[in-house]
Amino acid sequence: MYLYNISIIIENDHHESLMDWLKNNWFKTLPTSAKLLKMLDSPHEGHTYSVQLVFEHASDIPTFQKEKVSVLQTYIAQHHQEKAFIFDSTMKYI
């Protein structure tokens, strides 16, 4: 099993707008098992969030990235350019 994590870092002045879109649009398209977390002790300025999903097979992650993460990337590029960025990571349960 694999944990797929998307970290989202957003500047304070764009925070509410991005979170509104995430919660009311993008997040609703994800599997119900997806979790949205707020990092409480971030070394970064602004706000840091994490979206986490569990996948049975690592081979399922590229499809998710193509279908869902690309939508998030496009939205951020169009509405929050240079004010927000994301990075992802995949971890294997041991």
From TrEMBL:
InterPro entries: DUF4286. Pfam families: DUF4286 (PF14114). It comes from the Bacteria. This is DUF4286 family protein. It comes from Sphingobacterium litopenaei.
